[in-house]
Design brief:
Shape of chain A: globular
Number of helices of chain A: 8
Helix content of chain B: 25-40%
Distance between the termini of chain A: 70 Å
Oligomer: heterodimer
Shape of chain B: elongated
Distance between the termini of chain B: 34 Å
Radius of gyration of chain A: 18 Å
Structural class of chain A: alpha/beta
Strand content of chain A: 15-25%
Number of strands of chain A: 8
Order of helices and strands of chain B: HEHEEEEE
Radius of gyration of chain B: 17 Å
Number of helices of chain B: 2
Strand content of chain B: 25-35%
Structural class of chain B: alpha+beta
Helix content of chain A: 25-40%
Largest sheet of chain B: 3 strands, mixed
Largest interface: A-B, 36 and 35 residues
Strand order of the largest sheet of chain A: 4-3-5-2-6-7-8
Largest sheet of chain A: 7 strands, parallel
Number of strands of chain B: 6
């Protein structure tokens, strides 16, 4: 029996990408702005969402991704955000979220009346960038404590994002980090990315992020 | 760690092709992976060997990975540059108007098997 080579030429993640594209369109039609937050663990994603909820009147819905625990979801819930938890621990501890999981979560909780949908992706600067979850705006969060070099070390998360939030500005006086060099490195990876700086703790720069959300969300 | 999920999708797709082509046994799956995807080949091969036994006709299949480096084309000066580091600014004219022409691949090129 002869061996036969068959050309396939298909993207490996085409199923994920198809679901992601459907989600993007579906939520756009519903007038829900969908933002995917990606970062290393501990960059301040949850705190940013808590502060956002305190300053935005429109309803926010969040899908919280963690390998285990519901700690962040509990914090978001206390801040008034309706939240759905995805724990990947029981399924082998996946380090990212995929479009199909977001679709299933939305089918279960149907946040029709929300204005904003946030996915707080699993804390990891590598894997989440690989999987399109269908967001309108991919946002990478990097705290000033992480150093200037991280965009160069983990380029895909910065390359695949439209917005970068530099967080924990209040810690700058205690660090040797050069924030201009950090921004240069981000732009070397993605010259078109929008960069906002903030401290969710002190509120510095928060107004820029809130204005960005209001503008993109079509809120006067 | 994303190698596991990617391998799962890869096998599902390859299995669909095997059925469409009516192959009884697949001996080789060839994929092309750009370095931008941060895939560790050894980890991917390990996942493939662990998962293939659950896919009929793939028990003896070997995964072949072709890796592609990052290649940019500058829209300003038209230079084509192979990058050692993922910095997307043209090293020739420093333009930010560049396009990734290689290095972002993640696809199955072919499957080889017996009918």
């Amino acid at each position: 029996m002869d061996e036969k080579e068959i050309k396939v030429m298909q993207k490996i993640l085409n199923m994920n990408d198809r679901i992601a594209a459907e989600l993007r369109e579906e939520l756009k039609e519903k007038g829900i702005l969908y933002i995917n937050l990606m970062s290393s663990p501990g960059s301040g994603k949850t705190t940013i969402l808590e502060q956002t909820a305190r300053n935005i009147e429109e309803k926010m819905f969040a899908i919280e991704g963690d390998i285990q625990t519901t700690l962040d979801a509990e914090r978001l819930s206390r801040a008034g955000i309706e939240v759905f938890q995805i724990n990947t621990g029981p399924f082998g501890g996946d380090c990212h979220l995929e479009a199909g999981w977001i679709k299933s979560a939305l089918e279960e909780c149907n946040p029709e009346d929300a204005k904003f949908l946030f996915v707080e992706n699993i804390g990891n600067l590598v894997c989440p960038a690989e999987f399109d979850v269908g967001a309108h705006i991919n946002t990478v969060v990097i705290s000033v404590t992480e150093g200037e070099d991280k965009p160069l070390k983990y380029p895909l998360a910065f390359r695949n994002s439209q917005l970068c939030l530099i967080s924990k500005l209040d810690l700058l006086p205690y660090l040797d980090v050069d924030i201009e060099l950090l921004k240069d490195n981000i732009r070397q990876i993605n010259p078109r990315i929008e960069i906002l700086e903030l401290s969710a703790k002190t509120g510095e720069g928060l107004s820029g992020w809130l204005a960005y959300l209001r503008e993109r969300g079509g809120i006067e | 760690m994303h190698e596991g999920s990617i391998t799962k999708s890869l096998l599902a797709l390859a299995e669909k092709s095997r059925k469409e082509e009516d192959l009884k046994e697949v001996t080789r799956v060839k994929i092309v992976v750009g370095v931008l995807h941060h895939i560790i080949q050894e980890v991917m091969l390990m996942h493939f060997d662990l998962m293939k036994i659950d896919h009929r006709g793939f028990e003896e299949a070997v995964l072949e990975i072709e890796e592609r480096q990052i290649k940019l084309r500058c829209s300003e000066c038209c230079a084509t540059i192979e990058l050692q580091q993922a910095v997307f600014i043209c090293p020739e004219c420093h333009s930010t108007e560049t396009e990734v022409i290689e290095g972002n691949e993640l696809y199955i090129e072919s499957i080889t098997g017996i009918r």
